[in-house]
Amino acid sequence: SVVAVIMVGGPTKGTRFRPLSLNIPKPLFPLAGQPMVHHPISACKRIPNLAQIYLIGFYEEREFALFVSSISNELRVPVRYLKEDKPHGSAGGLYNFRDLILEDNYSHIVLLNCDVCCSFPLPEMLEAHRSYGGMGTILVNKVSPESANQFGALVADPVTNELLHYTEKPETFVSDRINCGVYIFTPEIFTAIQGVSTQRKERATLRRVTSFEALQPANRSLPTDFVRLDQDILSPLAGKKQFYVYETRDFWEQIKTPGMSLKCSGLYLSQFRFTSPHLLASGNGSKNATISGDVYIHPSSKVHPTAKIGPNVSISANARIGAGARLVSCIILDDVEIKENAVVIHAIVGWKSSIGRWSRVQASGDYNAKLGVTILVIIIKLMTFLYEPGESVLPNKTLNVSVQDEIIL
Ligand code: GDD
Hints:
By secondary structure, the protein is an alpha/beta fold. 25% of the residues lie in helices and 29% in strands. The chain has helices spanning 38-44, 61-75, 89-96, 98-102, 122-132, 189-210, 212-215, 229-237, 258-275, 281-284; strands at residues 2-9, 30-31, 34-35, 50-57, 79-83, 108-113, 116-118, 136-142, 152-156, 163-168, 177-185, 243-247, 252-254, 290-291, 295-297, 302-303, 308-309, 313-315, 320-321, 326-332, 337-338, 343-349, 354-355, 360-362, 375-377, 380-382, 386-387, 392-393, 397-399, 407-408. Strands 14, 15, 17, 18, 20, 22, 24, 25, 27, 28 and 30 form an 11-stranded parallel sheet that branches. A 7-stranded mixed sheet has the order 5-4-1-6-11-8-12, sandwiched between helices. It starts with a strand and ends with a strand. The structure holds guanosine-5'-diphosphate-alpha-D-mannose (GDD). Guanosine-5'-diphosphate-alpha-D-mannose binds next to strand 1, strand 4, helix 3 and strand 11.
């Protein structure tokens, strides 16, 4: 049988995601109305003989307790959160729980980064992995040459699919094929991680004995139990017939910033058309507002029949959307109130915000831009006013004037 492990990181990771992660852990931020990590978990459900899903992170246990119990019930698959006492790196985190993970003699380990958005073609990958016969198979994707340096870039044999070369976030162009953060491993991966750890210990001893470190301070190494999957495992083992690649032609994005979360919310909404049409507002017929394109509305939210919603809108619990309101490309979080005739375009409206009558909250919709584009409204109380591109507003703020291209703190 197969075990799935999702790396969720911890509060010191994902800083680019602020201020959205000030309230909840980034892996629980809603995309298409479901916590980010819900999407890979439900993809794991499609793996034949899946026995268990573990989430590994260094967030407090209580932050995941509710989510883990509700998703276990909903999907009827055991999901458990395992807390690291400190960050061990993407491979070290897995290794830290080796006894538990190896306990049930699983044949394969599916390892996923929580902050990627894709169709997770796991059954297909598993099949490819079996045919390659290596220790691991990596999901890869083709990106533009200009963006390849933000990821792990790799070269594979076009015939055998063997991983030949791997460089994490290369400074110069290596390849436009990149690591998607989705892997299938056999249990031998634990031996490989242990090898890195042992090597580090030996070097540390050598340094102590020879004062090597004093001669070469740049060589001061990472803690012996901190092992990164990419730099420490994939790079050195490339070209040794241990790793293979499986290329996806479906959508794939990385979710590091609020802007990208808005884009990924839209990608998951359009995927719902095939996987869960009952979750889409157009499919469940429960709301009689005008819906255009893919829209998710939580059943507890109230949307006025004269409001116009969509495309790419996701509305979380207990929101109230007033008469004549217009929402396009946005994520509306819990307990938000959007009053009559307000317009919200390309925005994330934070928990408990209230947007006044006839207000306009709008951005250009360039998902990749940092500030100056996608707007964040985090627990602010907006009166009637104009709110233009380029703003990021932190919690507990009331605005009653028009603002443009400013950060309001
Ligand atoms: N539990 C735990 N402990 N999780 C961790 C730790 C850790 O110490 N460090 C990282 N993670 C999790 C993150 O939350 C994320 O889901 C995943 O592991 C990878 O994070 P990073 O190691 O910070 O790498 P990255 O996201 O910058 O890049 C990786 O993913 C890209 C695809 O999205 C690399 O593998 C790239 O090569 C790859 O292209």
